[in-house]
Design a protein that fits this description.
The complex is a heterodimer of chains A (about 550) and B (about 250).
Chain A lengths: L6 E9 L3 H17 L5 E5 L13 E2 L2 H6 L12 E2 L2 E7 L5 E3 L15 E2 L2 H14 L3 E4 L3 E6 L5 E6 L2 E3 L5 E6 L3 E9 L6 H9 L11 E10 L9 E7 L8 E7 L4 E9 L9 H8 L3 H7 L3 E11 L10 E2 L2 E3 L15 H20 L10 H7 L2 H8 L3 H23 L40 H6 L13 E3 L4 H10 L3 H4 L5 E4 L6 E4 L9 H5 L5 E3 L14
Chain B lengths: L1 E5 L2 E3 L21 E3 L1 H15 L5 E8 L3 H11 L3 E6 L6 H15 L3 E5 L10 H9 L2 E12 L2 E8 L2 E8 L2 E5 L11 H7 L4 E5 H4 L27 H10 L4
Parallel strand pairs in B: 1-4, 1-6, 4-5, 5-11, 6-10, 7-10
Antiparallel strand pairs in B: 2-3, 7-8, 8-9
């Protein structure tokens, strides 16, 4: 079926209005202004508005922002809460914890000079700056595929068709998507971007890298009584309810307006198929260290998102003919700092500078942006990620305690330049043990005060999808969930999905796998963790998904 | 024939609205806003009338702060030819809005004024009626079908007893109900074009409107949470539970 599509031509098209994509767009316009030329930049965003799909902790290091907008304070960037104190706990049981003396904290976990922010609001602000600079931003439009020509060059993207029913037929209001063609296309979709994933495979970008590694972060925003609120206090933790086989960590940040940002990050290399990141987080909130702040408070928001954490060892090649990967779509997050916003921004800025350089030299586009990896290699970003390279692998190889000790030595004695490099070559989807060899986990019932069930939580993410559209969670082989995953792993999708998308319903032979695609919060965990790699996450109709505020 | 459509920027219908802890209102900072869904229906109806050749020009109007420009751009992407932004950063109550809209309607000399039957933020359901009263023109509220013939409009209204069809002389106010139409998807090329369409700015002062407070919001509270249900296994159990609560 061929469809007539409208075509628009730009110099640069950016997929995704997150920190990386928006920083790239702003930088392109700044470079054009400096040179007295014109660069047309278009940003598409699958969320219903900029920020709607952004979820981050977030403690923000302003280094990249300082470079992009040195006058960000005067321009009203939403960095209002400087970090005043770092507390780090090791949770030894559901009631006990040890506070780590400051002396033994890896340097990367210190946050002086950083700010507690809402990354969503930072993106909203960046979008306003970009629009002022002349960038066109179109939220509510999902990039459906990359346009690749006969010469294997990426020439832009197709934004999704609207008005297709569940069976794939055109509805009365069918509206064909549009081709956005560009000299260079930047993919800034965030962790496990669905186009980024395809491009990495198509151009074999990851052949020399370690497998990428991921975690899932589940986050809530709470409003708490003013007398318990310490604006700027950062509390990080490791240990209970997780362990060395199923590792992870937690965060609790005292934000503005008596709000607390609290979350649990579960490493997707976890091994127990019965583990549910959502339920681990719910019970985690009952720990006295956390409960002391949340008691008497009210939950305002809920969300979840996968985090890319492989770092420099897992970084794919960044460029291919006609385009590049930036931010978490490439995997720029610094896991030793648990921060990805400043690194995403910087990578976007570098890619933008590389494009501006090419265009200034008269390039018509379509070539390989080989200057971007070169600029990356010379930047503080590379240096930072290089120093953090052992952090994740040390945790995986030696467990939380020994790994943490090793990281303390690496970061504080060697400044990240220890004479060793650890590799972790086991992909996250292969780490599950068989259900038969695993311990079932009996999660406590939510009390409705500190802990909640999944559905009432998803409700707080304001997630919505047009009901009558093709399911955007595609099974390569529809028989796998019941025929293989269920007997082998008790179909872990029922538990790792933080939004209740996947259910096994019915009894005995009538058992079937149900996909409630409308609940999907676009975290991408299923695409990553499914042991059969059988779930393919593709973009639903534009505008669908969560509507996060202040996340 | 010219049609004027008023559009309001409201908290998006997908957003779970939260009441501020001090009870002074609902949280709107950082929250997604969009065009009031009933106003989308009004825009869609105006565009359909234009496509049928009944309307020649569509003017969209909104009242509110700088961010309302987004809402006007949406209206322009729907197919409005131009837009008017009545700039006002403060609170606007229905009567004030109606006075401003009536002034715009008079100035524009539009024969048809279409607006949503109510906005989903305050659910006031007053503005359309007030505009009609202020200008002493006909009103056809809760429309589920609109037909224009010459200088009359035949409007089917959703009333408690079913449907009621009335005929009104133009100029008239029509307020839209849910079943009038299903708004179309906005096309990316139309959104691009909308960026270049003109928006005229005006103000209460220019329109000769003095904003006034007809009422004061004293307190905002969330609805009471629903208490947990009890599962009963037998009819006897149900009966005794109801008796226990004094309901039988």
């Amino acid at each position: 079926m061929t469809v007539e599509r409208d075509v628009m031509e730009y110099d640069v098209v950016v997929v995704g209005a997150g920190p990386a994509g928006l920083s790239a767009a702003c930088r392109l316009k700044q470079k054009a202004a400096e040179a007295g030329t014109e660069i047309n930049v278009c940003v598409v965003e699958k969320g219903s508005e900029v920020g709607a799909h952004i979820l981050s902790g977030a403690v923000f290091e302003p280094r990249a922002l300082d470079e992009l907008f040195p006058d960000w304070k005067a321009k009203g960037a939403p960095l209002n809460v400087p970090v005043v104190r770092d507390d780090i706990y090791f949770f030894t049981s559901e009631t006990a914890a040890v506070k780590t003396p400051n002396l033994f904290v890896p340097k990367t976990m210190h946050n002086e000079g950083n700010y507690i922010i809402s990354a969503g609001n930072l993106c909203r602000w960046l979008a306003a700056q970009a629009e002022e600079l002349g960038v066109e931003i179109y939220p509510g439009f999902a990039a459906q595929e990359a346009i690749v020509d006969e010469q294997n060059v990426v020439r832009g993207i197709v934004v999704g068709d609207l008005g297709i029913n569940r069976e794939g037929e055109h509805k009365d209001d069918y509206t064909p998507g549009m081709e956005l063609r560009a000299k260079y296309t930047l993919f800034a979709e965030g962790c496990r971007g669905h186009l980024g994933k395809r491009l990495i495979a198509q151009y074999d970008l990851a052949s020399e890298a370690d497998p990428q590694h991921y975690a899932i972060g589940v986050k809530e925003i709470w409003e708490i009584p003013a007398d318990k609120h310490v604006p700027g206090l950062v509390v990080h933790g490791a240990g209970w309810p997780l362990n060395s086989e199923n590792p992870g960590g937690s965060f609790l940040y005292h934000f503005e307006n008596n709000q607390i940002l609290v979350g649990l990050i579960v490493d997707l290399a976890y091994s127990n198929p019965y583990l549910s990141p959502f339920d681990e987080f719910q019970r985690f909130k009952h720990h006295p260290v956390i409960k002391q702040y949340l008691d008497g408070g009210k939950r305002l928001a809920y969300g979840a998102r996968a985090i890319v954490k492989g770092g420099i060892n897992s970084l794919p090649k960044l460029v291919f003919p006609g385009g590049a990967l930036v931010g978490d779509d490439a995997g720029m997050l610094n896991f030793a700092k648990i921060k990805g916003n400043h690194t995403a921004m910087k990578s976007g800025m570098l890619a933008a500078e590389a494009i501006a350089e090419k265009l200034a030299a008269g390039s018509e586009g379509g070539d390989v942006l080989d200057n971007y990896p070169a600029m990356f290699k010379d930047s503080w970003l590379y240096d930072e990620l290089y120093r953090a390279r052992n952090f994740g692998p040390a945790m995986h190889k030696f467990g939380t305690l020994v790994g943490a000790g090793l990281n303390y030595i690496d970061q504080n004695w060697f400044g990240g330049k220890a004479p060793w490099t650890l590799h972790d070559r086991v992909p996250d989807h292969t780490t599950l043990k068989l259900a038969a060899d695993s311990q079932k986990i009996d999660y406590p019932k939510p009390d409705g005060k500190l802990s909640f069930d999944k559905l009432s939580s998803v409700f707080l993410s304001s997630t919505n999808h047009e009901e009558d559209q093709p399911v955007h969670l595609q099974l390569k082989d529809p028989s796998v969930p019941i025929a293989k995953n269920l007997p082998m792993y008790d179909e872990p999708a029922q538990r790792y999905c933080p939004a209740g998308v996947y259910e096994v319903v019915g009894d005995g032979d009538a058992k079937r796998f149900q996909i409630n695609a409308q609940n999907c919060v676009h975290c991408k965990t299923c695409d990553i963790k499914d042991p059969a790699q059988n779930i393919n996450w593709v973009a639903p109709e534009g505008g669908g998904g969560p509507n996060y505020a202040n996340m | 024939m010219k049609a004027l459509v008023s559009v309001k920027r409201v908290v998006d219908y997908n957003v779970r609205v939260q009441v501020k802890s001090d009870g002074s209102g609902v949280v709107t900072d950082g929250v997604k806003h969009s065009m009031n869904p009933f106003d989308e229906i009004a825009m869609e109806e105006a565009v359909r009338l234009k496509e049928k050749g009944k309307v020649t020009e569509i003017v969209a109007v909104t009242i509110g702060g700088a961010k309302n420009e987004e809402t006007l751009r949406t209206a322009l992407a729907f197919g409005a030819d131009r837009a008017i932004h009545v700039k006002e950063e403060g609170e606007v109550q229905p009567l004030t809005a109606a006075k401003a809209l009536a002034a715009v309607l008079k100035k524009e000399d539009a024969k048809l004024f279409i607006c949503g039957k109510q906005a989903i933020d305050d659910d006031a359901n007053q503005t359309g009626q007030m505009v009609a009263a202020l200008l002493d023109i006909a009103q056809a509220t809760f429309a589920s079908k609109v037909e224009i013939e010459g200088d009359k409009a035949k409007v089917t209204r959703e009333v408690d007893a079913g449907l009621e069809t009335i005929e009104v002389d133009l100029p008239a106010v029509v307020t839209t109900d849910l079943r009038l139409n299903e708004p179309r998807y906005l096309k990316l090329p139309d959104i691009m074009k909308a960026k270049k369409k003109p928006i005229d700015a005006t103000s209460f002062g220019d329109l000769g409107v003095t904003p006034g407070a007809g009422f004061k919001v004293t307190k905002t509270t969330p609805p009471p949470t629903r208490s947990k249900g009890v599962m009963v296994k037998t009819v006897d159990e149900l009966v005794s539970a109801l008796k226990g609560k004094g309901l039988l």
